[in-house]
Amino acid sequence: MDGHDGLAERFEDHRAHLRAVAYRMLGSLSEADDAVQESWLRLSRSDTSGVENLGGWLTAVAARVCLDMLRSRKSRREEALDEHLPEPIDGVDPGVDPEQAVLLADSIGPALLVVLETLAPAERLAFVLHDMFAVPFEEIATIVGRSPAAARQLASRARRRVQGTATAPEADLTRNREVVEAFLAASRSGNFDALLALLDPDVVLRADAAAARMGASSEVLGAPAVATTFSGRAQGAQLALVDGTPGAVWAQGGQPRVVFNFTIAAGKIVGIDLLADPEFLGQLDWEALDG
User: Fold this and answer.
1) Quick check: 125 pLDDT over 80?
2) Model pTM score
3) Domain 170-288 - what CATH class?
C-alpha cells in the first residue's frame, strides 16, 4: 500500500475528474467539493493494494457519496431548487488546475439541471455516469445495488426525460401511441409491408438477457430483419403507457413478463427494447391502454 503522501499525490491526479463527476451529479460546486473530500477520506481509510484501476475505484466511491447526498436531499424536500443551480464557473479559484477548468467549462447548465432535479437519485446517477462519463452499466449496477439491465433502464428513463420525451406535447404522445398501436396491429396480422412502413430503415431491436433466455434475439438490425422478427407475432402484447410513454406489455396474471420500449422519431420506430429483467419489471410504472 502506498504511503500517505504517495496516496495523496495519486488522489490529486484524479481530483479534477472526481469534481466534474460530483458537480454534474449534485449541481453545486460547494457540494461537489464536499463529495470529493469525503472520497479522499474514504480512500485514506481503505486498503488499495489490490486496486488496479484507482480512477475507476474513486469514481465509484464519489458516485456513492453523491448518491447518499442526493437521497438525503430528496428526503428533506424543504430545500429550494435554486440552491442547486450551477454556480458561475468564473467563481472558481484562480489557482484551479487547467484540466479542471476545462472539465467544468462544459458543465451542465441551468435548464438541464432543472430536469435532473426531477429524477430519482439512482436515475440521475445512472444517466450522469453512463451518458456523461461512459461508465459501463455493470459498474453502475454495483453502485446502485441493482442488475445491469435495471441500471440500463434507469439511464434510459432519465434520458427520455432529459430529451423531453416524458414531458412531450400531448400531440406527440398521441402520435407515438398511434405508431405503436399500428405496429402491434401489423405484427399480429403478419402485415410485413405495414411493418416496414412503420420502421426506420436503420431500426435496432435489442433484448436484455432475460428476454434472450425466453427466446428473443439479443440484437436485430435493419427494418427488413425487424419486420420479419415481428411478423405474425406480438399476439399477447397489450398497448400500454410505460413510464409515461407509449409502449407494450406482455403480462400474465396481471404481472408484466416482457416490456416493449419503443423509441420513435419523426413518426418512425428507430429502436425497440425487449425487457424481461424481473428487477426492472418490479419497479415498472405501467398502465394498459385500450387498443
Assistant:
1) yes
2) 0.55
3) alpha beta
